[in-house]
Specification:
Blueprint (H helix, E strand, L loop, with lengths): L1 E9 L9 H8 L6 E9 L15 E6 L8 H10 L5 E6 L6 H18 L7 E8 L12 E5 L10
Length: 158
């Protein structure tokens, strides 16, 4: 049995948006060899995540109030579960950003991709996941892939 820890970031631990955990759980119902562990944490967007709370072989980080589709957690984890990647970035192509912000993110992403030799580009990273074993690997040894994710502007204030 493969264990997946899903860290669900919320503005207030007592207020997980309705249906988020069940939607993630339901998206995995056809995968019989995966056990999900949910860790709900109160955190500001972009703040560091405490991985000591997780026990999974794979870890996904999901912003529950950021307007991301909970079913995309499975999409982001698929390349890991299939053995095709060490790190997966869920990339939504600049929704909600001005043209200047999208261009800046694209440029910075392109530069980072060239420097790290990963090949990933710009845009927002809304969801991300990794194999726990990848934490000890050199950055250049990581197999990093991007998958498209959907995004809507959140109705919940940050």
């Amino acid at each position: 049995m493969r264990k997946v820890s899903v860290i669900v970031g919320v503005a207030d631990e007592r207020e997980v948006p309705a249906g988020v955990l069940s939607e993630i759980h339901m998206s995995f119902r056809e995968i019989k060899d995966v056990q999900l562990e949910f860790v709900v944490v109160q955190q500001a967007p972009g703040s560091p995540v405490d991985l000591t709370m997780t026990t999974g072989d794979f870890v996904a980080i999901f912003d529950a109030v950021g307007g991301y589709d909970p079913t995309d957690v499975r999409r982001v984890l698929a390349p890991l579960l299939d053995g095709e990647a060490d790190v997966v970035l869920g990339r939504e192509p600049g929704a909600g950003l001005s043209l200047r912000e999208r261009a800046t993110n694209s440029l910075l992403g392109w530069v980072a991709g060239r420097l790290l030799r990963t090949g990933f580009g710009g845009g927002r990273v809304g969801l991300r996941a990794f194999r726990r074993e990848a934490l000890g690997l050199p950055v250049r040894a990581l197999r990093v892939v991007e998958v498209p994710v959907s995004h809507q502007e959140s109705a919940v204030p940050p």
